[in-house]
Amino acid sequence: MSAPTGPWLVVGLGNPGAPYAGNRHNVGQMVLDELARRAGTAFTSPGGAGGRRPQAVVADVRLGVLPGGAPGPRAVLAKPTTYMNVSGGPVVALARYHDIPPERVVMVHDELDIPFADVRLKKGGGEGGHNGLRDTSRALGTKDYVRVRVGIGRPPGRMDPADYVLRDFATAERGDLGWLVDRAADAVEAVVLEGLERAQGRFHTKP
């Protein structure tokens, strides 16, 4: 399956503000920071039609490198500045502003049901109780967008999952966190350069 033409919208889910920046729930935004770093750019607050600004910070980039060395496809990287459970509004506003259909929307997010340091890719399906995805599906009117699922594992013992995702990564995890963020960023680039099926073939196999 070939990748569709046109720009992409890549969204990293998380909560705004310094207290949340290192939380497991914010790993999607960590991945977006890595993609912006690779592109040599920074996030800025966009303008909007009629003076309305999307509730997000964005970076307009070329993702990856095509065979022969040409820059990869254009993508709008976005980090919503709303809280996680109301992520859908910024996503749909940016998709409409840039005329990007749901099949070229990539959501990067934490995933409890995947072991820490694994990355999985899918299009459509359920949201697995993830409030950011649920609100995005509602706002877009479809579940048929790509998800880059960054594994954070299940909470230990009887810890409430809601508490677990709002805690920073444990000391034992931090040594592998940079590698995980880097791998998830590679997965985003693979989706836009190679298409979902080929990217799944690469990233669903243990390195």
Automatic annotation (TrEMBL):
Function: Hydrolyzes ribosome-free peptidyl-tRNAs (with 1 or more amino acids incorporated), which drop off the ribosome during protein synthesis, or as a result of ribosome stalling.
Enzyme class: hydrolase
Residues carrying the site annotation Discriminates between blocked and unblocked aminoacyl-tRNA: N15
The UniProt record lists the keyword ATP-binding: no
Reactions accelerated catalytically: an N-acyl-L-alpha-aminoacyl-tRNA + H2O = an N-acyl-L-amino acid + a tRNA + H(+)
Subcellular locations according to the entry: Cytoplasm
Family to which this protein belongs: Belongs to the PTH family.
UniProt superkingdom: Bacteria
Annotated EC: 3.1.1.29
Designated name of the protein: Peptidyl-tRNA hydrolase
Binding positions for tRNA per the UniProt entry: Y20, Y83, N85, N131
Gene Ontology terms for molecular function: peptidyl-tRNA hydrolase activity; tRNA binding
Predominant location category: cytoplasm
Subunit field text: Monomer.
Site (Stabilizes the basic form of H active site to accept a proton): D110
GO CC, alphabetical: cytoplasm
Active site positions, chain numbering: H25 (proton acceptor)
NCBIfam families linked: pth (TIGR00447)
UniProt keyword annotations, A-Z: Cytoplasm, Hydrolase, RNA-binding, tRNA-binding
GO BP annotations listed: protein quality control for misfolded or incompletely synthesized proteins; rescue of stalled ribosome
